[in-house]
Amino acid sequence: MSDTFDLAVIGSGPGGYRAAVLGALRGLDVVIIERAEWGGCCLNRGCVPKKDWYHSARMLAAQRHFAGRGITGTLSGDLAGAWEHQRSVVGTVRDSYRGYLKHLKVQSREGHARFVAADVIEVQGPDGVETIGATNSIIATGATPIVPSPFELHEGRILSTDLLFDQPPPSGQRVAIIGSGVVATEFAFILTMLGRDVTWLTRSTPLSRLGFSPQALSTLKKQLAVHGIDAQRVKDYESVTLEGDRVVIAADGNTFDVDWVLLGTGRRPFTENLGLECIGVETDSRGFIRRRGTLRTSAPNIYAIGDVAGDWMTANHALSDATVAVDNILGDTEREQDGRFVPMVIYSAVEMARLGMTEDSAEDEELEPAIGFAAFETSPCALGQDEPEGFVRLIGDMDSGALLGGEIIGSDAGELIHLLSLAPDRATALAWLAQGTWNHPARAEEVLNATETLASKWHLEDTIFR
Asked: Hey, what's the torsion of the CAs at 156, 159, 161, 167, to 10 degrees?
């Protein structure tokens, strides 16, 4: 055995990176192991390059207001140029990422990690096999794309989002996007703004499983329609064939003729050849590593975080999991993770963010939900930005005034949602917001307005304005 570490982290995506950094900052001797590109899916093929494209898409979408603002001229999207830009951003972030790990004296290993015992890991690297010891380990190996039948990946023709960012995008104008989840909903907007003719095919209503309110989904649908984007429902895909330079999709007796296809059909956890059977760590029927609320697996010194263990499958959840896992490795008492209270954000024709319970889930826990609402349509800031669509919607407990959940729909929702996640605790979160000081004019003021509306409507003034 060459070296022994306090903490071994397998996987360098957002969860793995956060765990390695936090462990090192708190005094642990850490090694991080990566079999592919440093930074994982999020940095190389997910949230970082996608957010880069989303910024471009927003600028292109804004031009519909140019004339009214006294701005002349038009913009057009260039997907090939956008691909080069994100590639540069990803490279810069990766260099910074690796530099910071080196600064913190986190050791790194390149290769595939496999447990041979709960405290022993083999790393099959480019120069052979190395065996290392680890007092504690965190599995953060992420997930891989699901390719549903009858689709099969084909370079330049039928792509997962991994392939979309691995190579310059196809030149074809007509693209079919398959799926109804986050990735498909985001790319339907992004690729349309970047100049592609999008056919969006779904088996269910977009984002219907994520807990957004009917008002939120209606706002999304209206804003997609502004840009000529509409999801077409299909029950079954009968065949997918490559015919010359075309891809022909047969579904429900109809045919869709496009130049290329992008699959936004979900991901499955990656646990291949990790040696889990050697240490008694189990996976469930969908392949996720089984873990407790503390994120421990059945091996008491091994934790599982992010996509490999939780079906939220967001970078936000992986980052939050990393904090909980490291806290539990170092703490005298153990924390439990509640993924409901980690922000979920969608970057599409309207930005959407939510956390916490829905009204239905609150009632399932025998709580009485109270609603506070404030629309951006009267916000001076939102009106001045030509982006008045959306709202803030808060869910409080009618008895205690605790924050149960909330959603923010509209421009910069992904930033504003942090106002709902940073209070010292959920019991005092609404009181914390009510007592804050605020910039004017700002979109964030609508969070305060929704809080005050909730307090007044449900007679919670004494609880919230304490």
From this structure: -20
Q: Which of 282, 285, 277, 284 is nearest to 296 (CA)?
A: 282
* Residue 440 annotated among the catalytic residues of the structure: yes
Which is the catalytic residue, given 154, 227, 440, 459? 440
Q: Kindly indicate whether the domain formed by 3-145+268-339 is annotated with CATH number 3.40.190.10.
A: no
Domain boundaries, the chain: 3-145+268-339, 158-265, 350-464
Q: For residues 164 and 228, what is the distance between their CA atoms, to the nearest angstrom?
A: 23
Instruction: Please give the pLDDT value at position 466.
Output: 72
Sequence-ordered alpha helix ranges (H) in 211-251 = 214-226
Name which of 439, 464, 446, 331 is nearest 389 in CA terms: 446
pLDDT by residue (tens digit) across 300-353? 999 999 999 988 999 999 999 999 999 999 998 899 999 999 999 999 999 999
Distances (CA, A) of 398 to 366, 370, 422, 423, 464: 11, 5, 21, 19, 11
Mean pLDDT of 58-70: 97
- How confident is the model at residue 332, as a pLDDT? 87
Equal fold, 3-145+268-339 vs 158-265: yes
Architecture per CATH, domain 350-464, reads as: 2-Layer Sandwich (3.30)
Cα 107 to Cα 100: distance, rounded to the nearest angstrom: 11
Write down the pTM of the prediction. 0.97
Over residues 381-405, the pLDDT tens digits come to 999 999 999 999 999 999 999 999 9
Q: Rounded distance, CA 331 to CA 89, Å?
A: 37
Kindly state the tokens that stand for 446.
């609508």
Q: What is the pLDDT of residues 114-145, one digit of tens each?
A: 999 999 999 999 999 999 999 999 999 999 99
User: DSSP readout, 319-336?
Assistant: HHHHHHHHHHHH-SS---
Which fold does the domain 158-265 belong to in CATH?
A: FAD/NAD(P)-binding domain (3.50.50)
Quick one: residue 244, left, alpha or beta (phi over 0 = left, psi -120 to 50 = alpha)? Answer: left
